[in-house]
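As a representative case, we now present a protein record of this kind.
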Amino acid sequence: MAKSLNILIAALSLIAFSPFCLCSKAYGSGGYLFPQFYDHSCPKAQEIVQSIVAKAFEHDPRMPASLLRLHFHDCFVKGCDASILLDSSGTIISEKRSNPNRNSARGFELIEEIKHALEQECPETVSCADILALAARDSTVITGGPSWEVPLGRRDSRGASLSGSNNDIPAPNNTFQTILTKFKRQGLDLVDLVSLSGSHTIGNSRCTSFRQRLYNQSGNGKPDLTLSQYYATLLRQRCPRSGGDQNLFFLDFATPFKFDNHYFKNLIMYKGLLSSDEILFTKNRESKELVKLYAENQGAFFEQFAKSMVKMGNISPLTGAKGEIRRICRRVNHAY
């Protein structure tokens, strides 16, 4: 545990000298985000997040991917405002119930653990939205990926959007154009789509998310021909036509716990697990060239991933007097 923590802290200490250091301010309405936001109000904030993420990784190697996913699913719904963390209460219908999150989103307890530690250190100061952004960065670093400076100063929403979660988050069986449209709606482009999809170099997916590729991709009872048939045969062993919905499979079978560029190498071999992965190589010429670039050049992937994560983290932040700093991430303050 100490070794992993030391590796994480050492990597983060190099940010100022890293090619992935992104120091520009990210402007939001009523204020702006910047990496030094808590330097005076809660100077140990980033250290606390880093430490708890590192300990969690020791106990659960799946956690970094889960934390990355939480940040992504948060930002694509109403902006990066921690709406995904809210439980249902009063007029709030939790986003945890949505199709993209139900039975799959995880890491909520860890975020609450981080929040509790921060409340002990500096009460009502660090937002849950900023915790998600920092935890996503630290999760990338601890699994071997790039680092970046996280612009901070987000505030937390007082509401959630179940419909937004159902409609705005890209789905595994969406078409390429539908996914790109969902990204563009958030101010992200095709380069962001391909690089951020590279987060699937770690993590798992359920049988129910790709079953159609194995048996009935186009409604004609035939498998997806853009999936390696050898790989498909292996997948069918634990993902039958019916049953086993929750069985987990590595998104990157080659190096499932290491943040690297093997995800893109898999796509070139037609071994992307999800349809939404493989179509980056098969359905668009520009995205195909980016897949090939990142498969050949891990440095190029890392650099763009860092830039795209900062860009995604800047989606419609609540700043200034908007929103609140929740004392507990799963409920708004007036619920006390």
Residues 1-30 have pLDDT under 50 and may be disordered. Strands lie at 26-28, 31-33, 204-206, 248-250. The longest strand covers residues 26-28. The first helix runs from residue 2 to 13.
